[in-house]
Amino acid sequence: MELLEQIKSANISIAEGSTSWSSPSNIAMIKYWGKYSGQLPANPSMSFTLDHCKTETRVDFRKGNGNGVSLEFLFEGKANAAFEQRILKYLNSISTVLPMLEKLHLSISSSNSFPHSSGIASSASSMSALALNLVSIFNELAEEKLEQNEFLQFASFLARLASGSACRSIYGGFTVWGESDYFYGSSDLYAVPINSEYISPIFNDLCDDVLIIEKGAKKVSSSAGHELMHDHPFAANRFDLAKSRMGEIREMMSLGDIEGFGKLIEKEALMLHGMMMTSDPYYILMKPNTLSVIEKIWEFRREKNIPVFFTLDAGANVHVIYPSEHTKVVSEYIRENLLVYCENASYLCDRMGTGPKNLNA
Ligand code: DP6
């Protein structure tokens, strides 16, 4: 990436200041599951960025003590040593691409719009928000500023190094991460947005209602799951299939084939969990209530003939995906029939969003 050379050798004047971004989570339609060293994906993935589930992160920066990256970190107003260590490790790992970090002291404070214990993955929103702040700091201190496109590309690049799926949250709407023959300009190094002109309008306002089947941290981390794909007996087939599904989904989205799209995202969710169930060691993240909800969604779809589908991420919660024109009837159905399967009847209503916001702009 040529841009990296420009950033590495930029003229920086250290000063103090403050940046602030809010950045949303995203939900994958074609799943990223398996990676190589350097946070490179084993297959391309596609997601849409959410609207309400987001992280707000503010960074106050000033001249450091000259002994490398230094930092203090507050999560929801309180010191959090575990997160601080993770971020320190990350900042050290990217200081070769962003040498200014070694000269700065950063005070980072972060909070989520969704409860931390809700079982909603927060790495995509938190790491994309952090990456955007880092690029904003670069732009404040560098003699030669990055333009909008470069800014976002570099933020996506940095977010990927913190958490793969985070790189897709830098843009609103649908985004693709990972080189794919079907998406011009796609890359393993950063995500790219899909131009909404190529997508039939029915896909441009999808809802994602998240049924919280189980709160709390998941038993097996995504990192451990990615690792298990290395010796997985079905890995090669899985990666090939994900690559060809990128072509299928693109075709369905340009033709407005919501049925085909919905069935494909369900196949992806079940295959993701199939990979977990057939790895060594094997494990199951779905709960009995996950399956009950899936059956109910299928029943509802059959009976009402409404395009409502599910997807799963690496946990037990069910994401109910449907075009916003069906919000009233789907919400009613969820409230009356599905909340009994949710922990404390919890669920979140979200939808496709327009991407991160610079809160200092
Ligand atoms: C199942 O991005 O959380 O949500 O790169 O190790 O941080 P790391 O993994 P992460 O994996 C997300 C996996 C997934 C599918 C997806 O979002 O594509």
How would you describe the overall organization of this protein?
The protein has 2 domains: about 1-195, Ribosomal Protein S5, domain 2 (2-Layer Sandwich), CATH 3.30.230.10; about 205-350, GHMP kinase, C-terminal domain (Alpha-Beta Plaits), CATH 3.30.70.890. It is built from 9 helices and 14 strands. The protein has helices at about 1-10, 80-95, 125-140, 150-160, 220-230, 235-255, 260-275, 290-305, 325-340, and strands at about 15-30, 35, 40, 45-65, 70-75, 80, 105-110, 175, 190-195, 205-210, 310, 320-325, 345-350, 355-360. The strands form 3 sheets. Strands 1, 4, 5, 6, 7, 8, 9 and 14 form an 8-stranded mixed β-sheet that branches. It has a 4-stranded antiparallel β-sheet with strand order 11-12-10-13. The protein has a two-stranded antiparallel ribbon with strand order 2-3. Helix 3 (about 125-140) crosses helix 4 (about 150-160) and helix 6 packs antiparallel against helix 7. It is globular, with a radius of gyration of 20 Å. The structure holds ligand DP6. Ligand DP6 binds near residues 123, 223 and 226.
Topology:
Blueprint: H1 2-8, E1 17-30, E2 35-36, E3 40-41, E4 45-63, E5 70-75, E6 78-79, H2 81-94, E7 104-112, H3 123-141, H4 148-162, E8 174-177, E9 191-193, E10 206-211, H5 222-228, H6 235-255, H7 258-277, H8 288-304, E11 309-311, E12 318-323, H9 327-338, E13 347-351, E14 357-358
Parallel strand pairs: 5-7
Antiparallel strand pairs: 1-4, 1-14, 2-3, 4-7, 4-8, 5-6, 8-9, 10-12, 10-13, 11-12
Helix pairs in contact: 3-4, 6-7
Bound molecules: ligand DP6.
